[in-house]
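so my prof wants the structure for this chain in the tokens format not the other one, which i didnt know existed until like an hour ago. anyway here's the sequence
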Amino acid sequence: MSRAKGAGLGHAPAIVALAAMTLALFMTTPTGGDFWWYDASRHAMNGVFLRDFLMEGGLLHPLRFAREYYQQYPAINIGFYPPFMYIA
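here's what i got, hopefully its the right format
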């Protein structure tokens, strides 16, 4: 067996284990609700927040708008994910 081919087979158990864990995670995700992933609802709420921020005058008083919005909808977590993720 050539050296290059033997080196590739050395990683096979790790690749199989990673694939098995990925498949197990995917197969056990809850799919009965509206959102598949645990943070999908937060992504949606962050997008709604940005829309409301732009459409309802949040630019005039951004901190007050964000504070009042968060008191009403505590599911938002702007700043936790990469910048501009919700605009894309």
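also thought this was worth mentioning. DSSP finds four helices and no strands in the chain.
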